[in-house]
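Hey L., structure's done. Input below.
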Amino acid sequence: MEWNEQVSSDEEMRNWTLMDEELQELAEHLLNLNTATREQLEQLPFLSDQLIENILYYLYKYGAMLSINELWGVEGMDWRTRRYLQDFVYVGEVPADRKPDWRKIWTRNKQELLTRVGRSLNQKAGYAGYSAETLDKYPNRKYLGDAFYHNIRYRFSFANRLFFSFSAEKDAGEPFFRGANRKGYDFYAASFLLQDIGQLKTLVLGNYRANFGYGLVLNTGASMGLGTSVASFGRMGSGLTRFTSTAETGYLRGIGGTWQWNKRWNVSAFYSFRNLDALVDNSEIRSFKTDGMHRLQKDLEKKNTVSNHLVGSHLSYNGKYLEAGLTAVYNYYDKLLNPVEKLYNRFEPRGRQFLNVGLHYKWFLSHRWMWAGETAIDRQGAIATLNTIRYSPTVHTTWILINRYYDKRYHSLLSNAWGENSKTSNEAGICIGLETKILQSVNLSAYGDFFYFPWYRYQVDRRNTLGVSGNIQLSYSHPHSLGVLIRYGIKNKAKNHTLSDERKYVLPYIRQRVHAQVAYMPYPFLTSKTVAEFVRTSYGSNDKENGYALGETLKLASEDFPLQGSISGVWFRTDNYDSRVYLYEPGLLYTFSMNSLEGRGYRMAVNLRYDGGKRWMLQAKWGWTHYSDRNRISSGTEEIAGNNKADIQLQLRVKW
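Output:
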C-alpha cells in the first residue's frame, strides 16, 4: 500500500505518519464495496467527492457488484484509481439482514494480536557505561532503560459494529518493569467503539480521535494539504473515531457519543481527561512536551505534570444540497499556561481556560460547483476562517480556490487546519489548484499558494512577511505494468539568516524540489521502482546548497508462495541539513518508513514477510546506513562512534 510516498518537510512527515497508519488499518481490514457508505469511502483521500457519488450511484442503479472489475463501469474510474482501490476494498455479498446477531459475538468475531520489537545494532552514547560520579553530575547522559523498542497491540471486532483495542509501547531507552515503569510499558491505551446501533451512531470509550469541520476548532488527526489530492481537498472531519495507534499524542481520553435525531440531524457530545507532559516552572506551564519519550531524568521531570479537562459538543445537519455543523470546545488546565514571552509568541494562548466555537458548512450549488468552509471564534473574540470554492466541469477535472484568514490573536489548542504556519494563527492566504486528466493515462495536478504573516514568527524577526508555495505533478499509469511520476515543488518564505559579515538578516528562504520515479512490473510477482530526488535551498541568491538522491526498490511477491520480500538501496549526497532529502522504503505493518537523509553516503534495507496461511504472519526488516563524510553520527545521547548505523525490527501477527 504505497499510493503516495512523497514528503518534503518535517511537518508533512508528522501528518503522513498519522495518515499512513490509518490507511494501513483500512488496507488490513478491507471494506466491502457493496455495503460501503459515503463516510467509509471518504476515508480514502485519493477518491474525489464526484467519484464517490458515481460509485454509490452505480450500486444504487445496478445493484451489488459481482466482481472488482465492475469498477470499470463507474463513470470517471481510471486505471490509477482502480489500482489504489484494490488495496482497500473487496466485492462481497450483501447480507439479507444487516442487523448483527449479538448471540454470535463470541463465535463470529475477528481478533488480532500483533507485537513488534526492534533495536539499533550500534552502541549509542546514551547506553554507554558512566561512573556514579559522572551520572551524579550529569544525570541526563545515560538512558534509564535498554536499547529495545517493543509494542503489543490487540484488536477485537464484531459485525462492523463493535470494536475494542488495547495497545502498549516502550520506546528504546525507556525502563521496562523497573525504575519509573514498574508496571511495565511506558504507554498504555485502550479504545472501545460501538456504532450504527439504531439511532446511536457512535459511542467511544477510552482513547479516541475527534475531528469536526475543517479543523479550526478541533482536529486531533492529520491535516493533509493539496499535495495529497486537489479533488478531495475540502472534505470535512470524520467526527468521533477510535484510536488504535501506539502514538502518545493526537488523541482524547474519556467518553463521547453521536446520536442521530433523524435522517438529517446528528448531535455529538464528548469529554476527555488527560495528564500531559509539560515543562512547569513556579506552577506555570512554559511549554508542552509532545514526543512521548521518557528515557532521561529530565523527561521524567516533565511527565504527567499537567491535568487537562476538555468538554465539547457538535450539532450537524446533512441535507441534499447543504451540510453544516456547529462545534464548541472548552479546555481547562489545572495550571496556568504562560510561555516565557518573546516577540514572536506575544499573542500565543495564556491562561487556564479556553473556549472555541466554530461553524462549518458545505453547499452544493450544482453538481459542478461547491462552496465549503469554516469560521471560528475564540474566547477573546479573535476569528479564523477558511473557505473554498470548487468547480468540477467533468469527473476528471477539478479547480479549487482556497482563502484563509487566521487572526494573530486566534488560538485553539487542538486545532489542525490547512495552512503554511505550524499553528492556526497569524496567517492569511489564497491558493488555486487544479487536478485533471490531459491524456487517457496522464494526470496533471498543480497548485500555487500565496500567503502573508502579519506578526513575527519563530526565526523570523520581521512583521508583514510574504511567501509563496507551489507544486506541479505529472503522472502516467499504464494499464498493466508501468507508472511514471515527476513532480516539481517550490517554497519561498522569510527566515532569519546570518551572512558572511556576521550580521543577521531576514531573507527569503527558498527550497526547490524535483522528484521523479518509475515503477515497472515486468512479471506479476516482480516490481521495480526507481526514484531520483534533487533539492536546492538558498537564502535569496546567497548560500545555495544542493541535495541529490538516487534509489531503487525491488519487490518479490506471489499469491502462490507464502514468502515475499523487498530490497531497497539509495545513494545520497547533500551539502547540509537544509538540503536533506526524504525517501520512502517498505516497512513493517503500521509503521511509516520515510527516511530523512543528509550528508554523503548510502542506505540499504531488506524486508522479508512470511504468511502462515490466514492465521499468522512474521515479518523482519534490516536497515543499514553508511556515511562517507563523518566518523560520528548524530549527537548527544544518540551519538554513534563511527560512520555506520544499522537497525533490525521483527513483527509477529496472529489472527483468529
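The helical segments are 10-28, 38-41, 49-62, 79-85, 132-137, 297-302. The mean pLDDT is 90.

-- N.
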